[in-house]
Amino acid sequence: MEDQREALRKIITTLAVKNEEIQSFIYSLKRMLLNVEANSAKVQEDLEAEFQSLFSLLEELKEGMLMKIKQDRASRTYELQVVTMAPAFRLSLKAKVSDNMSHLMVDFAQERRMLQALEFLPVPSTPVIDLAESLVADNCVTLVWRMPDEDSKIDHYVLEYRRTNFEGPPRLKEEQPWMVIEGIQQTEYTLTGLKFDMKYMNFRVKACNKAVAGEFSEPVTLETPAFMFRLDASTSHQNLRVDDLSVEWDAMGGKRMSSGRGGRDRFTAESYTVLGDTLIDGGEHYWEVRYEPDSKAFGVGVAYRSLGRFEQLGKTAGSWCLHVNNWLQVSFTAKHANKAKVLDAPVPDCLGVHCDFHQGLLSFYNARTKQLLHTFKAKFTQPLLPAFTVWCGSFQVTTGLQVPSSVCCLQKRGSTTSSSNTSLT
């Protein structure tokens, strides 16, 4: 009986998927019918406008040539009349002008042949995207394509892209709209400064000549791996106001908060901390945080989920951080297990955090220059969470970032100033 239920369940699932595919296909056909009507009306209107423009040009040329013929006729008539009115003894028996008007004849043979050969401008071929040459790195995407046939009349290319969480061929219906880039002159284009807040991106490209655009290429899907997380407001200290990826110290937060909002996992007392909502249990991950320079105290790092409500970042064996203190005297330190190491480097306003879980490396960088500030070497025994602390200040986190190539190169070359946990003093 259970096997029959399972078989029936699979059949229902298959029918549901097929129904969705059929509905998508019908939707696509309806859109194409509408586009055929709209596009045919547009090209007809454009063609009529082009012919009207040609008629107007020919009319102007005709008027100008007729005027020249009239002027030449009037000039010749005047010259001939002057001769007939001259006295007999001064009369020249040779006319000053000729009655031949053939120099004003126009040969339209070439133009007639050109007009007879007039036809619709050929539609450019469909480009083919070269996945082997395309690249996703450093939150940039370089897309490369080629034309199946050489076409000297191509004027430019149009590239469209959109974000998606679905692998494989692009779906007809997506929540994210296509973003358009026009006027591309080469057969490649690099999108820079992207935030990879979804798992994949769809791409398609078409070629255009002076008058018409070709068909879009077969869409492709590229994976955009990056570390995405949010701040878990349920963990934040009551004096921290969390808004998406921004946090601001609020001295009145505790007084305004109702007793019902205080969860058992919320940090309290002097642990002005908030955690990320996504565990790190493998691989390499990178994120950045920009803090208000006037903040009296700020820290960024990672911690085990077991970090206690009253425990401060960097003061336990299960937390690691860089800490900036602007209260009383300025200090810039690396903290772990209640030990601190003073860092001999200018304090940047934007910090990059790189965590290589399997290698047990936690590195901090100047996010703007990619200067390495400090590296912890540890053996992580539990999954980690991004962790932040701030007192009398604010900060903004940037996620959806890939590990920068410069950071990868530094790690591969071993050009680090890493310190073991026992060296923190």
Can I get a quick summary?
By secondary structure, the protein is α+β, with helices and mostly antiparallel strands. The protein is 24% helix and 29% strand.
Give an overview in words.
The protein has an 8-stranded mixed β-sheet with strand order 10-11-22-13-18-19-20-23, with no helix packed on it. The two termini are 68 Å apart. 24% of the residues lie in helices and 29% in strands. The chain is an alpha+beta fold and 425 residues long. It contains 4 helices and 23 strands. The relative contact order is 0.10. Strand 15 and strand 16 form a beta hairpin.
Instruction: Give, in order, the helices and strands.
Output: HHEEEEEEEEEEEHEEEEEEEEEEEHE
- Mean pLDDT across the residues is 87
The number of strands is 23
Are there runs of 5+ residues with pLDDT below 50, and where?
256-264, 415-422
* Helix coverage percent: 10-25%
Radius of gyration: 37 Å
> Which shape, going by the Cα principal axes?
elongated
Portion of residues in beta strands equals 25-35%
Strand pairing plus helix content: what structural class? alpha+beta
Number of helices: 4
Major sheet = 8 strands, mixed
